[in-house]
Amino acid sequence: MGRAWLRLLGESADVELAGVVDLNPQAARDALADLGLGSVPVGTSLTELADAVGAQAVVNVTVPAAHHPVNVEAQFLGLPVLCEKPAAPTVAEALSLAAVAEATGQLLMISQSRRYFRTLAAFKRQAALLGEIGLLTCDFFKAPHFGGFREEMEHVLLVDMAIHSFDAGRYLLGQDPVSVYCEEFNPGWSWYAGDAAATAVFEMDGGTRFVYTGSWCADGLETSWNGSWRINGAHGTAVWDGESAPVAERVAGVSADAGASVASAASADGPEEIAGALAEFVHSLRTGEAPSGEIHANVLSLAMVEAAVKSSQTGQRVLIRDVLDDAHRHALAVESVPAAKDVLAAWNSPLDALQRAGCAGSIAPV
Fold it and tell me: What pTM did the predictor assign?
């Protein structure tokens, strides 16, 4: 992903790649040289290099365990951040990052790159024509042989991949999760040490049920990496195979104009995947419009993962509010940044705080 971002930033007409920070500077220099960017400065300290080159923003493509410290350092330098998903390894750390964003007034956007597909945006527009939504389903069946750490992970499907589908479900519905019941298991032929298959049933705050079923050891007739989707509402049904244009069938007499003004992360002809995330980040900095991946909103996608794991472990339906409350208590107990601790302490309810910030809809333009 580091090389993918370097290539994008080096080619973009909207940004200038000012420098690269890496604990292994030679690896960074080699990557830059391979991409014809050998003149870009390299350093091992974000603070020092940002000051030396006059950086105006940070793209954080570190490993997930480093997301929190790098984001905090950047924001206290007065720099907005576009960070690879997940926001942090735990919901507690993600809440800390939301508090830091409030304390510093700096934008932290999480790059949920799979929101940025034109056909997904078209599917969202189709969904808006269906009236009240009863059920959204996503089937995800792939059989990748990664080798390495993924094949040894616990909860590998839920933790490493499902957040894309969970986040896309929130995006499609415009609803937030209330609860989840999830079962995980590992098929007998699985080459993963942890559970590689799961079904999760989410209740959303609009009353819709969102059902995710997936497997990472599913040879034959594989789905797209985006999954295969179906949404049913009072006025009909729409389906999306994760790649091509969605197909919808509406009941007779329903206007086709009802969803024409629905906002989408990806436009009909806009950039996709990480290029789409970068475009929205730049747009937000220039206009002050909060992006769809702003940290307060994104915490709820990560909470869906943590709640699903907890449900699979306990065999019980888990409330998202309870997961956030537990994470909030932990975040308060361990927070070492005084300004962030003050923000966390002021939150009577983390869910209310996240949703209130998500409704604000604006940031300070750069």
Answer: 0.91
